[in-house]
Design goal:
696 residues; alpha+beta; Ubiquitin-like (UB roll); Four Helix Bundle (Hemerythrin (Met), subunit A); eight-stranded mixed sheet; binds adenosine-5'-diphosphate; binds magnesium ion
């Protein structure tokens, strides 16, 4: 175990290896290309590729792959070996700069939302040198962006990289205005907390719904769920502890800063949090975390569930996205700091975040929309679907005093004058840790709590980066023009806080009162995926993405199509799985039990006609009613699915799924769950909730 520092990052072609293995000039050229965002010369690329290959081969690696993140939300790879034939009929191991920089996977089967119909059919992958190459499954993995031949983004990484640039440019403008001449770049940082369930592998495999859809589509409420709240932070069982240790080791080898692990609220639910890193790296790493979580589980006889809602009536899983911005010199721009100069700048960045979140509630909400997450948001276990910001008492007091021109902290302080050098020291707020807020300030970062556990964090973060870049851009435009910096700063902050203060809410977000209060404030409440996704392509939002070159109009529209299609497909697979399970397993199981009951009644009567068969009669009648209900609801679900196919337009179809198919699925489930409760255990065809939740 004392080998961990040496082992950390051993599968990564990172800083240390590069410095050791790259010729000095090559290393410098690479660093410069990354800093300037410029492409590399082929000669430099050849030299890097060769060093990468030698390093990988020294570790027994035989293949390389461009590793990319198509719109499926998963990662994709296609392995090619390093072998290259020689004239003597032998082979040598080769990897060229061209192969490193660009790949041409056959992209025709990845979702593109129509982009490839209007443009070229092929796609290509382009090396992202800002994320380190690594070794996985005996292959050298090169992180890449995935685009169409016309350059349209077909993946999650491309807009993220573009948004990182946009934020950098705008934040630097602000820093320069505050006299900062040393920072060369501003980056956003992210620490994503990953929630997941671990259940017994054999039981998982016995449930077709879990295997096909990642969640249980049937299952009666168990006598015991999470009521005792004894699982949260509880002692970790040894099988789970072994799994977590195994996972940590694999993650550390990949240079992933896995830090915290604990049991979560629901039985069998856990969390892993890494130490934060740059948004691009954090996104790549989180994809690897999810992949390894699933892959390592079977070694321990377990299955890992990343779905947002694997079990009805039990807490679902989210992914808290801790987000901040800092300079390359290590200054966190969302840290209130300790001196007034820093505070004025902090107040401006804080104001920018409030403005961004308020102006683009719709986009933030759309960035976390999915069929799976619809089960969480607004279900009083996760943030409501309404976006608001938790600021804590101290900052809220400061905001109010600025907006209302009231004295702050009456006794000690006067009115808050904003101007560089005139703001009072802002004490750190450690009071409330509001768990119900979707977007909470937690001392020196914001925690966006709405993303679902199965999400790629690329989506929420490219939105966050872009909307904050937009607010900073507006401020920089005004500040660069003014002759009186302090006065303009004062009015920007005061005016924007006045306008956007409505987004601040420190109370309990799970209550009905908040829903009413939010409506009064004019805040959006987009309760479902199909209510929120169309906002993604509103004129205002398309203009935003165009302005900062994060997405073109075509890219926005194609992404919308992909997201809506994914929603439809997800629910459709669930509905078809329900129909299949109802017909092939549930109805036959109920019938088998009925048949046993009738045989019992008959044999009783053979013994003595006078013996009561009241029990069998009542139960058979109850079960028969339920079975008929299940049968009819299955038929109804099937005919609604057929009807959905006739809608033509995907938005209309998605709305139909939400309005008609999902409620029909719920009805079918209700009848089946009631049948489960009334059926002898040995006739029930699947492991129950008790089996699933309490068997590890
Ligand atoms: P909690 O569960 O109380 O929210 P955790 O410690 O589990 O807290 O998670 C906090 C996360 O926030 C960690 O991943 C941590 O690295 C991350 N974090 C801390 N500072 C920053 C920052 N400046 N930018 C982004 N993430 C940060
Ligand atoms: Mg948290």
């Amino acid at each position: 175990m004392n080998k961990i520092p040496e082992m950390f990052g051993e599968l990564v072609f990172g800083e240390a290896v590069m410095r050791e293995r790259l010729p000095k000039d090559t290393y410098k050229a690479l660093k410069k290309a990354i800093a300037d965002g410029k492409p590399l010369d082929l000669e430099v690329a050849n030299s890097i590729a060769n060093a990468m290959k030698d390093w990988a081969v020294s570790k027994g690696v035989t293949h390389f792959t461009h590793w990319f993140q198509p719109m499926t939300g998963a990662t994709a790879e296609k392995h090619d070996s390093f072998i290259s034939p020689t004239a003597e009929g032998k082979i040598i191991m080769e990897f060229s700069g061209k192969e490193l920089i660009k790949g041409e996977p056959d992209a025709s089967s990845f979702p593109s939302g129509g982009i490839r119909m209007t443009f070229e059919a092929r796609g290509y992958t382009a090396w992202d040198p800002t994320s380190f190459a690594f070794i996985k499954d005996n292959a050298l993995c090169i992180p890449t962006a995935f685009c169409s031949y016309g350059g349209e983004a077909l993946d999650k990484k491309t807009p993220l990289l573009r948004s990182i640039d946009a934020l950098n440019v705008q934040a630097l403008r602000i820093l320069r205005l505050f006299g900062n001449t040393t920072a060369k770049s501003v980056i956003s940082t992210v620490g994503p907390e990953q929630e997941y369930f671990l259940i017994n592998k054999a039981l998982y495999e016995a449930r077709r719904d879990l295997v096909l859809t990642g969640r249980t589509l049937f299952g009666a409420k168990p006598p015991r769920g999470q009521e005792l709240e004894d699982h949260y932070f509880g002692a970790i069982k040894s099988r789970v502890a072994d799994y977590m240790a195994d996972l940590d080791l694999e993650l550390w080898k990949l240079g992933i800063l896995s830090k915290t692990k604990h049991n979560e609220v629901a039985p069998s639910q856990h969390e892993l949090a890494p130490i934060y890193s740059t948004t691009n790296t954090a996104t790549d790493h989180n994809q690897l975390v999810m992949e390894l979580m699933k892959k390592i589980a079977p070694r321990h006889g377990l299955a890992c569930l990343l779905h947002e809602k694997p079990f009805a009536g039990i807490n679902g899983s989210g992914k808290h996205n801790n987000w901040s911005i800092s300079t390359d010199t290590g200054i966190n721009l969302l840290d209130p700091g300790s001196s007034p100069e820093e505070n004025a700048q902090f107040m401006l960045f804080l104001t920018a975040v409030l403005k961004a979140v308020d102006d683009y509630q719709d986009l933030l909400r759309a960035s976390v929309a999915s069929a799976g997450n619809d089960h969480r948001l607004g279900a009083a276990e996760a943030p409501p679907a309404i976006i608001s910001v938790f600021l804590g008492d101290v900052l809220t007091d400061i905001v109010n005093s600025i907006v209302d021109s009231k004295k702050y902290n009456k006794k000690e302080q006067g009115y808050i004058e904003i101007g560089v050098g005139s703001l009072p020291k802002i004490p750190k707020d450690n009071t409330d840790r509001n768990r119900t807020s979707p977007f909470a300030f937690t001392g020196n970062k914001f925690e966006f709590r709405m993303p679902g556990s199965a999400f790629s964090i690329a989506g929420p973060n490219f939105v966050l980066n872009t909307i904050v870049a937009d607010a900073l851009c507006t401020f920089a435009d005004a500040l660069e023009k003014t002759k009186d910096f302090n006065a303009t700063l004062q009015s920007i902050i005061a005016e924007n806080l006045a306008k956007h203060r409505r987004i601040v809410y420190n109370g309990n977000g799970y209550t009905e009162e908040w829903v009413k209060e939010a409506a009064k404030r004019g805040l959006l409440n987009l309760t479902s995926t199909i209510d929120s996704l169309p906002e993604f392509k509103s004129r205002k939002n398309i203009e935003l993405f165009k302005k900062f070159k994060v997405l073109t109009e075509v890219e926005v529209l194609s992404r919308y199509d992909i997201l809506v299609e994914t929603y439809i497909k997800t629910v459709k697979i669930e509905a078809l799985t329900m129909i299949d399970m109802a017909r092939k397993n549930i109805i036959p199981a109920g019938e088998a039990y009925v048949s046993v009951l009738s045989k019992t009644a008959k044999s009783k009567m053979v013994i003595d006609k006078g013996i009561s068969v009241e029990l069998e009669k009542t139960l058979i009648s109850k079960l028969t009613d339920l079975l008929l209900k299940i049968y009819r609801r299955t038929e109804a679900l099937e005919s609604k699915l057929t009807e959905a196919e006739e809608k033509g337009d995907i938005t209309v179809e998605a709305r139909y799924f939400r309005a008609e198919i999902i409620p029909t699925m719920a009805k079918l489930r209700a009848a089946a769950d009631e049948l489960e409760v009334n059926t002898a255990e040995k006739y029930w065809p699947f492991p129950s909730y008790v089996d699933l939740l309490f068997s590890v």
